[in-house]
Amino acid sequence: MKKVVALFLYPALVYSAEVSNPKPYPSIEYIQERAYGTTVHYVYVKPVHELELVVTGSGKRRLSAMITSLENHEHKNVLVGINGGYFNRENGDVIGTLIYHGKHMEKIDFGRVEMGISGNTVSFGYFGEADPPPFFYLLTAGPYLVKESKNIARRATGEEDFALDKVDTHPRTAIGKKSDGSLVLVVADGRRRNERGLQLEELANILLKTGCVEGINFDGGGSSTLVLSGEFYGMTKTENIVQNNPSDGEERKIANGFVVLDK
Q1: Considering only CA atoms, which of 96, 95, 64, 93 is closest in space to residue 81?
Q2: Residue 243, phi then psi, degrees to nearest 5
Q3: Which residue has the higher pLDDT, 209 or 22?
Q4: CA-CA distance, 133 to 116, in Å (whole number)?
Q5: How confident is the model at residue 17 (pLDDT cuts 50, 70, 90)?
Q6: Rounded CA separation 163/187 (Å)
Q7: Of the candidates 6, 44, 7, 42, which has an alpha carbon nearest to the alpha carbon of residue 25?
Q8: Of 56-60, 171-175, 234-238, which range is least confident?
Q9: Strand, helix or coil at 240?
Q10: How far apart are CA 144 and CA 158, in angstroms?
């Protein structure tokens, strides 16, 4: 297994990272590092046009189970997946809007930032209840973290009417986009011994450090999950590995996720 130690500099911070790509794909790079007193997992997805990006359908299942179903029933090879938007933990209902395969599965505009996918292009914004849907896939998330290369996490938390506890330290999941359209997926551990978690402004700083010009927060806490294909470790593609340390001690059942497929 190839391991490389790398250093990243940001104001008042030094990041130490271990790069681990035993069987790398040219367009995927996984890095794990310590930042702000917690373990942060990155997946760099570049260039986007070599990949297919989808949002899995709603339902209350573990992300790894969603991925296995996608691979078995649609015969697609998932390289990486992260948890998606917010949901009701009692019944699994999506909170906000969810568009899947061009159809509204949920249609509620909370005035919170959304991620839309058209082809292989990812867009962030406030798209409302447009009909017909402007995207093939869309989910509500939030708050906005980075816009026009600026940290807007604190302002957006208030504007999108999130509870104040959202700014505290928690496990986190986020997605950012660089100017060339490539993506950065970020999952941070937390709520565990020696794992502080991240504040939203810190999460935004991390996206900026990676070169993102835009980025949004996904559901976090016990929902935060990063799954890598077993092929990265010389296993079969269906032996998917949960790469982070979920704060519940195991994967939480969630409503939807975001996955990157190998064409």
Answers
A1: 64
A2: -90, -30
A3: 209
A4: 10
A5: very low
A6: 21
A7: 44
A8: 234-238
A9: coil
A10: 11
Q: Record the tokens describing residue 158, joined without a space.
A: 């208030």
Segments making up each domain of the chain, as ranges: 22-262
Per residue in 205-223, is it b (16+ CB within 10 Å) or e — as a string?
A: bbbbbbebbbbbbbbbbbb
pLDDT of residue 247: 96
95-107: per-residue pLDDT in tens? 999 998 888 888 8
Note if the pTM is more than 0.85.
Answer: yes
3-state secondary structure 146-215: EECCEECHHHHHHHCCCCHHHHCCECEEEEEECCCCCEEEEEECCCECCECCECHHHHHHHHHHCCCCEE
For residues 228 and 21, what is the distance between their CA atoms, to the nearest angstrom?
A: 11
Kindly report the CA angle at 34 between 169 and 231, in degrees rounded to 5?
A: 110
Q: What are the backbone angles phi and psi of residue 188, rounded to the nearest 5°?
A: -115, 135
Residue type, 89: R
Which residues fall within 8 angstroms of residue 247, CB to CB, at 6 or more apart? Answer: 171, 189, 190, 191, 192, 195, 221, 222, 224
Nearest to 261 by CA among 6, 38, 76: 76
pLDDT of residue 16: 41
pLDDT tens figures, 53-77: 777 766 789 999 888 888 888 778 8
Of residues 238 and 54, more confidence is placed in 54
Nearest by Cα to 17 from 9, 214, 25, 240: 9
Answer for the pair 260, 82: CB distance below 8 angstroms, yes or no.
no
